[in-house]
């Protein structure tokens, strides 16, 4: 199948079991006159139990997309729904609670507390929420990330890859609807990056979690079921069953001709939205 045909046969506009949906999301920074349009009408749905990578040239809006989707930032216009709930209708307090209870985050910097053991780092979000972990839940996640025998260690006693696995365990322990990764392998060497990506894949395939991750690395993106490409704040297309080579080819094209389209002319948002 050609890439154009692949794009045209991408996921449907609404899926049977969408956990997250962005509709016409626009995010402008600064005033209306000289503002920067970081997202320009992005519509996107994520199926439950899917692994999506978001790629695009620097400044194309990847982080902004992630932040809006995760309720860390409010879009200037458009809607974001998590399990059907419109995040725009929530107060700051309710949004904070939703992020804590139903969203997991894994960042490039592991953001672990150095004085706490692995177990205490993993259970921190639950304790902050005044919740007790479900029986066996902590053991389960530590087992899943391969750190059951390191539960009493502190971050400094672990490798970078192990520290990122602690961060993944921490993201998993609340059983979130979606786990967001912002360059989760950006600070890791190749071997550790491969382990962490394999773990994220496993979390999707075996635990049925939904993962969306921003990355600059075509090899990392190829671990996902689908890669969504952004260019100038718009969705430029997507690739199902990606390989590193095809992702890299897409990125080269995006750098050379910002928003590609099926007929070779500049695509508009409506045309691209049809692909979703
Ligand atoms: N807080 C902000 N204030 C003003 N402009 C911003 C802000 N955050 C992002 N932008 C602008 O919005 C656009 C998109 O930024 P964003 O960080 O989402 O891109 P990105 O694709 O994640 O980039 P990179 O790959 O370099 O991290 C850029 O032009 C950026 O300069």
TrEMBL record:
Keywords of the record: ATP-binding, Nucleotide-binding, Transport
Gene3D superfamilies assigned: P-loop containing nucleotide triphosphate hydrolases
GO molecular function: ATP binding; ATP hydrolysis activity; transmembrane transporter activity
InterPro entries: AAA+_ATPase, ABC_transporter-like_ATP-bd, ABC_transporter-like_CS, ABC_transpr_LolD-like, MacB-like_ATP-bd, P-loop_NTPase
Entries under SMART domains matching the protein: AAA (SM00382)
Signal peptide: none
Pfam family, one: ABC_tran
Residue ranges annotated for the ABC transporter domain, each copy included: 20-257
GO cellular component, one term: plasma membrane
Classification via PANTHER family: ABC TRANSPORTER RELATED, IMPORT ATP-BINDING PROTEIN
Record-given protein name: ABC transporter ATP-binding protein
Source organism (scientific name): Actinomadura barringtoniae
